[in-house]
Design a protein that fits this description.
By secondary structure, this protein is of the alpha+beta class. It is built from 13 helices and eight strands. The strands form two sheets. It has a four-stranded mixed sheet. A four-stranded antiparallel sheet has the order 2-3-7-6, with no helix packed on it. Helix 2 crosses helix 5. The relative contact order is 0.09. Bound molecules: flavin-adenine dinucleotide. The site of flavin-adenine dinucleotide has 19 residues, from strand 1 and helix 11.
């Protein structure tokens, strides 16, 4: 199953080709001003592009080897929320430098005691004249050490049900009282941080949307996802996929054991099912249909598949798998240069070779909602099973577990 894209006469194709002819090596600013960084965003920041237009634009940019400015959390999360609920001043101030990658953003949501049950967060924001005074601790904050701004969730009313007392702020990361401490993950990379907020004063203008309505904003991004044909990698769309592992084994000419061969075929079949689900989802979007259950099923299955694939690569590597710089089959590891599989969308900061992929794959079933939580979503919203005890009881999952 493949998606066939329209030819040379298609207006979006003609337009992007003509822009590329005039800007063969666009600066990040030119890119941002053209609308081609996030063409699905509305004008003037994007082009209000349809799903098909987005795919065609991606294809032409790829053909021209032109890479978009990078700002994963800004463009993926913060921008769509500001477009949805931000003031005109906020849109004017933040969106263009965000699209140009001039100002990097991070996401100050998770706390040491609030991850899956994010609405239980305890960072407080108290109004003081024209300012909000924020105190609390955030954790797992990717890019906090590089970011100019963070999107921040804080409790503004502790006396109402937990989802109803949260507000959404823009926090300049160089504000007095913001302290950032690195967390080195098991790949050896520094991407995460702990962020301590100690009487951080934010201007009232940094509130996004209305006071105490932050919870609904935290969920806005989902409906704004960019449509893309790339992103077949097993590490959240980046990195190598099952086909790449099979290809490696095929080209090496090495005969692997029947057990490994069986496992490899199983992993490849998982990958193929996921690819077909993705194509089906894309075809439905192109036909203007509402997203079905495929997205939740794909997220739950895809994260586990990423781990299976990386485990399989280590098993095939045998004793070489103990070496950090060796691929699944040492004989052709030279082909797998550092960053060789870094996709367009990011993870460029991580050296995507198999060993790092193996270590990184442990994050897949945690970040962006754990696999257990995804299963709850599938159970409740797709299969109509009784609700998770957390929602029923208004308790944290840990409290519920203790009282069972
Ligand atoms: C690579 C990566 C990048 C991240 N980047 C950011 C970032 O930039 N900003 C940010 O704010 N956060 C970030 N996070 C944090 C991430 O959002 C949380 O780790 C995630 O939401 C899980 O929360 P937790 O770690 O507190 O685990 P917990 O919620 O404490 O979960 C612990 C275990 O309990 C299980 N569990 C919890 N609730 C239920 C339930 N209801 N039913 C069944 N099982 C349950 C979980 O599945 C898990 O196995 C990142 C995480 C990763 C891995």
């Amino acid at each position: 199953m493949d998606i066939v894209l329209p030819g040379d006469d298609y207006p979006a194709r003609k337009a992007v080709k003509s822009w590329l002819a005039n800007h063969p090596d666009p600066s990040p600013r030119e890119f941002a001003e053209s609308g081609y960084v996030a063409p699905h965003w509305p004008n003037p920041w994007g082009l209000g592009a349809s799903a098909m237009d987005q795919l065609v634009i991606d294809e032409e940019l790829k053909k021209a080897s032109v890479r978009r400015p990078q700002n994963r959390i800004g463009i993926g999360w913060a921008g769509p929320t500001i477009i949805y609920a931000g003031s005109e001043e906020q849109k004017e101030r933040y969106l263009l430098p965000m699209l140009a990658g001039e100002e990097i953003w991070c996401q100050l949501f998770s706390e040491p005691d609030s991850g899956s049950d994010l609405a239980s967060l305890s960072t407080r924001a108290v109004k003081d004249g024209d300012e909000w005074v924020v105190t609390g601790q955030k954790i797992w904050t990717t890019y906090a050490h590089e970011a100019k701004f963070g999107i921040l969730l804080a409790r503004t009313d502790p006396n109402v049900p937990k989802h109803e007392g949260i507000s959404y702020f823009i926090c300049p990361m160089d504000s007095p009282g913001v302290k950032i401490e690195p967390i080195i993950d098991m790949t050896g990379q520094h991407a995460f941080n702990q962020v301590f907020l100690d009487d951080v004063r934010l201007p009232a203008a940094n509130l996004v949307g209305e006071v105490n309505k932050g919870w609904s904003l935290a969920k806005v991004t989902l409906g704004n996802e960019r449509v893309s044909l790339s992103g077949e990698g097993a590490l959240w769309g980046d990195g190598p996929n099952a086909e790449a592992l099979v290809d490696l084994v095929r080209r090496s000419g090495v005969s692997i054991s029947p057990v490994l061969r069986y496992g490899l075929v199983k992993v490849w079949m998982e990958g193929e099912i996921l690819r077909l689900l993705r194509m089906r989802q894309l075809a439905a979007t192109l036909a203007g249909q509402q997203p079905g259950p495929e997205a939740s099923v794909r997220k739950a299955m895809g994260d586990v598949h990423g781990k299976h694939l990386m485990d399989m690569a280590k098993d095939i590597a045998g004793a070489y798998g103990m070496l950090g710089d060796a691929g699944p089959l040492d004989g052709i590891k030279g082909e797998l240069g550092v960053g060789a599989w870094a996709g367009e969308g990011g993870l460029a900061w991580i050296s995507l070779i198999w060993s790092l992929g193996y270590l990184y794959s442990c994050a897949l079933t945690i970040g962006g909602g754990t696999t257990e939580v995804q299963h709850n979503i599938v159970a409740e919203r797709i299969l109509g099973l009784p609700k998770d005890i957390d929602v029923e009881a208004g308790k944290t999952w840990a409290e519920s577990r203790q009282s069972r």
